[in-house]
Amino acid sequence: MSGKHEAKYKRVTVDLPKGKLSLYVGQRVRTALREVLENMKFYKGIRFFQVVEAFYEQGKKDGRKEVFDMMDGVKEKVNYLPPGRPRK
To answer: What is the pLDDT of residues 3-14, one digit of tens each?
Structure first.
């Protein structure tokens, strides 16, 4: 695409205790995040990011589970035999 338009999603980097998290979000999410973090105290900020990190970790687990379930479905449908000579 040409450079004549703005991207729909922009990267937002969130600093977590275990490292940085890059999220690609739209305008509504960026605005909501800005509003939530605007007047946040330190303690509430830590608690908020613990919740965000928990959501992120659960999403990674759910994504992995989805991929493994899909692969198990493919394994059941495909009759795969390892290469080599058949047993006598």
So the answer is: 666 768 888 887
